[in-house]
From TrEMBL:
Pfam families: Lactamase_B_2. Gene3D superfamilies: Ribonuclease Z/Hydroxyacylglutathione hydrolase-like. It comes from Oceanidesulfovibrio indonesiensis. GO terms for molecular function: 3'-tRNA processing endoribonuclease activity. SMART domains: Lactamase_B (SM00849). This is Ribonuclease Z. Residues 36-223 form the Metallo-beta-lactamase domain.
Amino acid sequence: MPLEHDVNDVMLRTTRGGMHMRVIFIGAGEAFDEHTPNTSLLTLPDSYDADAVLLDCGFTAAAAFFRHAPPKLHADGLAAIYLTHLHGDHFLGLPWLLHRLGEDGRTKHLDILGPADTREVIPAASEIAYPGSFARLPFPVGFVEVSPSHDITLDRWRFRFAPSLHGQPNLAVRLERDDKILCYSGDGAPGPQSASLAHNADLLVQDSYFLEKDKDPDGASGHGSAEGSIELARKSGSRRLALVHIARCVRHGRREELMRLAESVKDVQVLIPQPGCVLTL
Protein backbone atom coordinates (compact mmCIF):
# COMPACT_ATOMS: atom_id res chain seq x y z
CA MET A 1 0.00 0.00 0.00
CA PRO A 2 1.42 3.44 -0.85
CA LEU A 3 2.36 5.71 2.00
CA GLU A 4 0.92 8.84 0.46
CA HIS A 5 -2.67 8.64 -0.67
CA ASP A 6 -4.55 10.56 -3.32
CA VAL A 7 -7.35 7.98 -3.60
CA ASN A 8 -10.78 8.54 -2.08
CA ASP A 9 -11.06 5.46 0.09
CA VAL A 10 -8.35 3.17 1.44
CA MET A 11 -9.79 0.16 3.26
CA LEU A 12 -7.75 -0.70 6.35
CA ARG A 13 -9.62 -3.53 8.00
CA THR A 14 -8.71 -4.75 11.46
CA THR A 15 -8.92 -8.36 12.55
CA ARG A 16 -11.81 -7.49 14.85
CA GLY A 17 -15.39 -7.68 13.66
CA GLY A 18 -18.25 -5.28 14.19
CA MET A 19 -19.08 -1.97 12.62
CA HIS A 20 -16.57 0.22 10.85
CA MET A 21 -15.27 3.68 11.62
CA ARG A 22 -14.25 5.96 8.76
CA VAL A 23 -11.61 8.65 9.15
CA ILE A 24 -11.27 11.41 6.56
CA PHE A 25 -8.13 13.52 6.71
CA ILE A 26 -9.51 17.00 6.09
CA GLY A 27 -5.96 18.30 6.51
CA ALA A 28 -2.62 16.97 7.69
CA GLY A 29 -0.37 20.03 7.74
CA GLU A 30 1.22 22.26 10.35
CA ALA A 31 0.21 25.85 11.06
CA PHE A 32 2.05 27.60 8.22
CA ASP A 33 2.22 25.01 5.44
CA GLU A 34 0.82 26.78 2.38
CA HIS A 35 0.44 23.51 0.46
CA THR A 36 -1.31 21.32 3.06
CA PRO A 37 -4.38 22.35 5.11
CA ASN A 38 -4.09 22.37 8.91
CA THR A 39 -4.43 18.97 10.54
CA SER A 40 -8.10 18.10 11.00
CA LEU A 41 -9.89 14.74 11.07
CA LEU A 42 -13.49 13.84 10.33
CA THR A 43 -14.69 10.63 11.95
CA LEU A 44 -17.85 8.85 10.85
CA PRO A 45 -19.75 5.66 11.60
CA ASP A 46 -20.46 3.16 8.83
CA SER A 47 -22.84 5.58 7.16
CA TYR A 48 -21.69 8.85 5.60
CA ASP A 49 -25.07 10.45 6.36
CA ALA A 50 -24.78 11.88 9.89
CA ASP A 51 -23.40 11.61 13.42
CA ALA A 52 -19.89 12.69 12.41
CA VAL A 53 -17.27 14.21 14.71
CA LEU A 54 -14.72 16.79 13.53
CA LEU A 55 -11.41 16.90 15.37
CA ASP A 56 -9.86 20.40 15.21
CA CYS A 57 -10.67 23.12 12.69
CA GLY A 58 -7.82 25.53 11.99
CA PHE A 59 -7.24 28.50 9.66
CA THR A 60 -7.23 26.44 6.46
CA ALA A 61 -9.23 23.40 7.58
CA ALA A 62 -12.69 24.95 7.33
CA ALA A 63 -12.62 25.33 3.54
CA ALA A 64 -10.99 21.90 3.26
CA PHE A 65 -13.92 20.41 5.19
CA PHE A 66 -16.28 21.38 2.39
CA ARG A 67 -13.79 20.08 -0.16
CA HIS A 68 -13.39 16.62 1.38
CA ALA A 69 -16.40 15.89 3.60
CA PRO A 70 -19.33 13.99 2.04
CA PRO A 71 -21.96 16.48 0.82
CA LYS A 72 -24.60 15.01 3.16
CA LEU A 73 -22.55 16.33 6.09
CA HIS A 74 -22.44 19.92 4.84
CA ALA A 75 -25.49 20.98 6.87
CA ASP A 76 -26.83 18.76 9.66
CA GLY A 77 -24.41 15.81 9.50
CA LEU A 78 -21.92 17.00 12.12
CA ALA A 79 -22.79 15.89 15.64
CA ALA A 80 -19.84 17.50 17.41
CA ILE A 81 -16.52 19.31 17.00
CA TYR A 82 -13.61 18.66 19.37
CA LEU A 83 -10.82 21.22 19.78
CA THR A 84 -7.60 19.83 21.27
CA HIS A 85 -6.41 23.35 22.19
CA LEU A 86 -6.85 26.98 21.25
CA HIS A 87 -3.98 27.65 18.86
CA GLY A 88 -5.16 29.26 15.62
CA ASP A 89 -4.32 26.32 13.39
CA HIS A 90 -6.65 24.18 15.50
CA PHE A 91 -9.67 26.43 16.06
CA LEU A 92 -9.66 29.64 14.00
CA GLY A 93 -11.51 28.01 11.11
CA LEU A 94 -14.63 27.76 13.26
CA PRO A 95 -16.09 31.23 12.51
CA TRP A 96 -15.90 30.35 8.78
CA LEU A 97 -17.30 26.85 9.34
CA LEU A 98 -20.19 27.89 11.57
CA HIS A 99 -21.22 30.70 9.22
CA ARG A 100 -21.16 28.35 6.22
CA LEU A 101 -23.14 25.63 8.05
CA GLY A 102 -25.80 28.22 8.71
CA GLU A 103 -25.87 29.32 5.09
CA ASP A 104 -26.19 25.68 4.04
CA GLY A 105 -29.34 25.28 6.12
CA ARG A 106 -28.20 23.68 9.34
CA THR A 107 -30.88 23.59 12.04
CA LYS A 108 -29.60 20.76 14.26
CA HIS A 109 -27.93 21.39 17.64
CA LEU A 110 -24.09 21.31 17.45
CA ASP A 111 -21.83 20.46 20.38
CA ILE A 112 -18.36 22.03 20.56
CA LEU A 113 -16.03 20.27 22.99
CA GLY A 114 -12.83 21.92 24.11
CA PRO A 115 -10.80 23.61 26.86
CA ALA A 116 -12.34 25.83 29.53
CA ASP A 117 -12.09 29.04 27.48
CA THR A 118 -13.83 27.63 24.41
CA ARG A 119 -17.23 28.97 25.49
CA GLU A 120 -15.88 32.55 25.40
CA VAL A 121 -13.29 32.31 22.65
CA ILE A 122 -15.45 30.93 19.82
CA PRO A 123 -18.20 33.59 19.99
CA ALA A 124 -15.50 36.28 20.36
CA ALA A 125 -13.59 35.02 17.30
CA SER A 126 -16.84 34.86 15.33
CA GLU A 127 -17.66 38.42 16.34
CA ILE A 128 -14.28 39.63 15.01
CA ALA A 129 -14.62 37.67 11.78
CA TYR A 130 -18.31 38.37 11.07
CA PRO A 131 -19.88 40.79 13.59
CA GLY A 132 -23.20 39.51 14.88
CA SER A 133 -22.89 36.18 13.07
CA PHE A 134 -22.71 33.91 16.11
CA ALA A 135 -25.87 35.36 17.65
CA ARG A 136 -27.68 34.93 14.33
CA LEU A 137 -26.74 31.29 13.73
CA PRO A 138 -29.91 29.40 12.72
CA PHE A 139 -28.93 26.44 14.91
CA PRO A 140 -28.16 26.08 18.64
CA VAL A 141 -24.55 25.59 19.77
CA GLY A 142 -23.64 23.92 23.05
CA PHE A 143 -20.21 24.04 24.68
CA VAL A 144 -18.78 21.13 26.63
CA GLU A 145 -15.65 21.67 28.72
CA VAL A 146 -13.29 18.69 28.65
CA SER A 147 -10.66 17.53 31.13
CA PRO A 148 -8.41 14.50 31.63
CA SER A 149 -10.45 13.41 34.63
CA HIS A 150 -13.79 13.04 32.87
CA ASP A 151 -14.72 10.78 29.97
CA ILE A 152 -17.56 11.94 27.74
CA THR A 153 -20.13 9.95 25.79
CA LEU A 154 -22.08 11.62 22.97
CA ASP A 155 -24.52 9.30 21.26
CA ARG A 156 -22.30 6.26 20.62
CA TRP A 157 -19.00 8.15 20.59
CA ARG A 158 -16.82 7.76 23.70
CA PHE A 159 -14.12 10.37 24.39
CA ARG A 160 -11.14 10.07 26.73
CA PHE A 161 -8.57 12.85 27.13
CA ALA A 162 -4.99 13.26 28.33
CA PRO A 163 -2.39 16.05 28.15
CA SER A 164 0.45 15.97 25.65
CA LEU A 165 3.72 17.93 25.86
CA HIS A 166 2.88 21.23 24.17
CA GLY A 167 3.41 24.94 24.74
CA GLN A 168 -0.29 25.51 25.36
CA PRO A 169 -2.35 22.92 27.26
CA ASN A 170 -3.41 20.34 24.67
CA LEU A 171 -5.57 17.30 25.31
CA ALA A 172 -5.01 14.32 23.07
CA VAL A 173 -8.15 12.26 22.55
CA ARG A 174 -9.05 8.58 22.37
CA LEU A 175 -12.27 8.27 20.41
CA GLU A 176 -14.12 4.95 20.46
CA ARG A 177 -17.22 3.73 18.68
CA ASP A 178 -18.38 0.13 18.91
CA ASP A 179 -15.06 -1.75 18.92
CA LYS A 180 -12.98 0.72 16.88
CA ILE A 181 -10.40 3.05 18.43
CA LEU A 182 -8.87 6.24 17.05
CA CYS A 183 -6.21 8.10 19.02
CA TYR A 184 -5.35 11.66 17.93
CA SER A 185 -2.61 13.71 19.54
CA GLY A 186 -3.56 17.22 18.49
CA ASP A 187 -0.26 19.03 19.01
CA GLY A 188 2.61 17.87 21.18
CA ALA A 189 5.06 15.12 21.88
CA PRO A 190 3.50 12.20 23.77
CA GLY A 191 3.64 12.46 27.54
CA PRO A 192 3.05 9.50 29.86
CA GLN A 193 -0.69 10.20 30.08
CA SER A 194 -1.36 10.85 26.40
CA ALA A 195 0.76 7.85 25.43
CA SER A 196 -1.54 5.63 27.48
CA LEU A 197 -4.50 6.65 25.28
CA ALA A 198 -2.90 4.87 22.32
CA HIS A 199 -3.14 1.38 23.81
CA ASN A 200 -4.29 -1.04 21.08
CA ALA A 201 -5.54 1.78 18.85
CA ASP A 202 -6.74 0.80 15.40
CA LEU A 203 -5.29 4.10 14.17
CA LEU A 204 -2.86 6.41 15.96
CA VAL A 205 -2.67 9.91 14.45
CA GLN A 206 0.36 11.67 15.86
CA ASP A 207 2.06 15.08 15.72
CA SER A 208 5.32 14.32 13.87
CA TYR A 209 6.72 17.79 13.31
CA PHE A 210 10.37 16.70 13.35
CA LEU A 211 11.87 13.79 11.50
CA GLU A 212 14.41 12.71 14.13
CA LYS A 213 13.55 12.25 17.77
CA ASP A 214 16.85 13.77 18.96
CA LYS A 215 15.84 17.15 17.47
CA ASP A 216 13.61 17.61 20.52
CA PRO A 217 14.36 14.83 23.01
CA ASP A 218 12.48 16.39 25.93
CA GLY A 219 9.50 17.77 24.05
CA ALA A 220 10.59 21.32 24.88
CA SER A 221 9.43 22.63 21.49
CA GLY A 222 5.93 21.34 22.06
CA HIS A 223 5.98 18.98 19.09
CA GLY A 224 6.66 15.33 18.39
CA SER A 225 8.77 13.57 15.78
CA ALA A 226 8.26 10.85 13.20
CA GLU A 227 10.75 8.62 15.01
CA GLY A 228 9.02 9.23 18.34
CA SER A 229 5.61 8.52 16.81
CA ILE A 230 6.84 5.19 15.44
CA GLU A 231 8.26 4.31 18.86
CA LEU A 232 4.91 5.13 20.50
CA ALA A 233 2.97 3.07 17.96
CA ARG A 234 5.17 0.06 18.69
CA LYS A 235 4.98 0.40 22.48
CA SER A 236 1.22 0.97 22.49
CA GLY A 237 0.35 -1.89 20.17
CA SER A 238 -1.31 0.46 17.70
CA ARG A 239 -2.17 -1.24 14.44
CA ARG A 240 -1.57 1.73 12.17
CA LEU A 241 0.14 5.10 12.48
CA ALA A 242 -0.55 8.30 10.56
CA LEU A 243 2.16 10.99 10.66
CA VAL A 244 0.61 14.47 10.62
CA HIS A 245 1.53 18.08 11.47
CA ILE A 246 4.90 17.45 9.79
CA ALA A 247 7.07 20.56 9.51
CA ARG A 248 6.79 21.99 6.01
CA CYS A 249 10.57 21.87 5.62
CA VAL A 250 10.39 18.11 6.30
CA ARG A 251 7.17 17.28 4.41
CA HIS A 252 8.28 19.11 1.27
CA GLY A 253 12.04 19.47 1.65
CA ARG A 254 13.01 16.08 3.09
CA ARG A 255 10.22 13.99 1.59
CA GLU A 256 12.47 11.15 0.41
CA GLU A 257 14.02 10.75 3.87
CA LEU A 258 10.57 10.75 5.44
CA MET A 259 9.34 8.12 3.00
CA ARG A 260 12.38 5.93 3.58
CA LEU A 261 11.82 6.06 7.33
CA ALA A 262 8.15 5.11 6.96
CA GLU A 263 8.92 2.30 4.53
CA SER A 264 11.60 0.89 6.82
CA VAL A 265 9.03 0.10 9.53
CA LYS A 266 7.78 -3.46 9.14
CA ASP A 267 5.85 -4.11 12.37
CA VAL A 268 3.50 -1.09 12.14
CA GLN A 269 1.78 0.24 9.04
CA VAL A 270 2.99 3.83 8.74
CA LEU A 271 0.94 6.26 6.65
CA ILE A 272 1.67 9.79 5.48
CA PRO A 273 -1.87 10.89 4.62
CA GLN A 274 -2.74 13.58 2.13
CA PRO A 275 -5.85 15.76 2.53
CA GLY A 276 -8.88 13.82 1.35
CA CYS A 277 -7.50 10.42 2.29
CA VAL A 278 -10.25 8.15 3.73
CA LEU A 279 -9.37 5.25 6.01
CA THR A 280 -11.92 2.62 7.02
CA LEU A 281 -11.06 0.89 10.27
